[in-house]
Design brief:
Blueprint lengths: L16 H8 L13 H14 L3 H14 L5 H12 L12
Helix pairs in contact: 2-3
Length: 97
Amino acid sequence: MRDEYDFSNANKATDIKHLAELQAIPLGKTRITIMLDDDVIGQFKKLAESSGTGYQTLINQTLRKSLEAEPVNADLLRKVIREELAVYITPADHSPR
């Protein structure tokens, strides 16, 4: 091993394609391998093409929305059913219209 090395002619990482791609990966993201149905990927690719964004970005956005959505539990389901049935029941006698 040498005591000193000359890097004056070395390429920058941004000039080497695979290193530039690695540097371009946004922080806070992790590369994973996942198995998805072909038709699901196809639909996301169609959506991505029409929206001008990447299909993986759309999949990420969809997963995020799903995680942030209010879970459907028994209380929420009862509330929605009551609201929907209220249209068909008169307030006076609770009989169907």
